[in-house]
Structure prediction request, 308 residues.
Amino acid sequence: MDNVIILGSGCAGNTAAIYAARANLKPVVLEGHEPGGQLSITTEVENFPGFVGGVQGPQLVENMKQQAIRFGAEYRAGRAVKADLSKRPFRLELDDGMALETRTLIVATGASARWLNLPNEQKLIGHGVSSCATCDGFFHREKLIMVVGGGDSAMEEANFLTRFGSKVMMVHRSENFRASKIMLDRARSNPKIEFITNSIVEDIFDVSKGYVTGVQLKNLVTGESYTRGVDGFFVAIGHIPNTKPFIGQLDLDEDGYIVSHGGARTNITGVFHAGDVQDRKYRQAITASAAGCMAALEAERFLESEGH
Ligand SMILES: Cc1cc2nc3c(=O)[nH]c(=O)nc-3n(C[C@H](O)[C@H](O)[C@H](O)COP(=O)(O)OP(=O)(O)OC[C@H]3O[C@@H](n4cnc5c(N)ncnc54)[C@H](O)[C@@H]3O)c2cc1C
Prediction:
């Protein structure tokens, strides 16, 4: 039986692994479907403290992993598909049919960005395509930016991006927005934002150049397809917290995010949360890492209080 199993190898899981390993708990990290987490799909990260000249996302998460391994963390390929948290030890079933038991569990499974699934979208992530304005807005000073979405976070991202871009085009499939009136009004009154409604994006260019140069749009009313030049393309259509194995066991909010019971605690004693899987607000590498640290410290103290 393990002392600590950490689900997820993003910033939260890796940082939890560093702390738990240095506390001699020999944590086991399940890497999940996306080893390294969301930073593994991006390029330049300029806002993680300690890297004066920035760092590549995949390098940053690999550094964290190697740091954890150096202190005795064990990394395993695989994903938890089922969890029994009704009694201790907790039991996890993995996608390869294996089962693991653990005294404590740190859930650091993240919240995956929803993408549009356009033919060239994934190939241009980190090269002009992003799902995070806070992270990547700075790369688009005086550039043409497009945002897709119709909710509050899309409005917030568009407003924020006007600090950088010469213009922000807001594309939405209908004329009706899910966004609250106040957020919509704020975006509508921003002179740098142009609304393109009743329209969808059909694809993004230009993979052969290695960066975003434009998009193909379709007007759903007229049926007309046409191209527009853009330099930055932000998808703001929400996130999906990876909490499926815990439905009915962990307290989740209406969108599936873990509800915190103070610090890194969940509603189940011995199960801790870390990172974007609980955080719908900040969603940054540094906040996920900080949450991983908190979860590991709480797991360590809990194990100690139980005499392990
Ligand atoms: C394109 C892009 C660019 C970004 N740029 C920046 C930036 O410049 N600066 C910044 O601070 N932030 C940036 N972010 C945000 C940052 O990546 C996230 O806030 C951070 O990765 C969250 O870390 P996390 O560990 O909580 O989750 P994630 O990184 O999402 O990691 C989740 C982990 O859980 C695993 N997992 C999921 N389900 C299971 C399961 N059932 N069993 C086991 N494992 C599972 C996954 O495989 C993954 O390893 C960016 C995000 C994106 C998408």
About this structure: The CA atoms of residues 250 and 267 lie 6 Å apart. The radius of gyration is 21 Å. The first strand starts at residue 2 and ends at 7.
